[in-house]
Amino acid sequence: MVQVSVKYTGELHCDATHGPSQAKISTDAPSDNKGKGEAFSPTDLVATALATCISTTMGIKAEDLGVDLRGMTVSVQKEMSKDAPRRIVALPSEVHIPLGPDHPHREVLEQTALNCPVHKSLPAEIHRPTRFFWEG
Length: 136
What we know:
Layout lengths: L3 E7 L2 E6 L5 E5 L13 H24 L7 E4 L2 E2 L7 E3 L2 E5 L8 H9 L2 H5 L8 E5 L2
Parallel strand pairs: 7-8
Antiparallel strand pairs: 1-2, 2-3, 4-7, 5-6
Helix pairs in contact: 1-2
């Protein structure tokens, strides 16, 4: 279990502290929803969680396989609903891998990404296509 503590600091800003490490992040409401967009919004953190989870789980699997994924990039585009209630409707992602398209571990690495804990935790209503680019 991990404890995260959040303090509301006013003007739609929050400071979050990660219990085990005491690392801190700040959030702000997005500029299209009464905020100033001065930091990640809470829904931006969902997109960030997906991108970092894909990267981390692929990195774990790659280490197990003796493969170096250094330089891999993952980008996620967050798309919000146009109707109420306000919610994330899509998180399309692109994974750019610095290995050749004929890499012997391609399938297992792609399946690892698609089965990361964040992917598995998001509801089915959130469309989350993932495209892989093998660029080595």
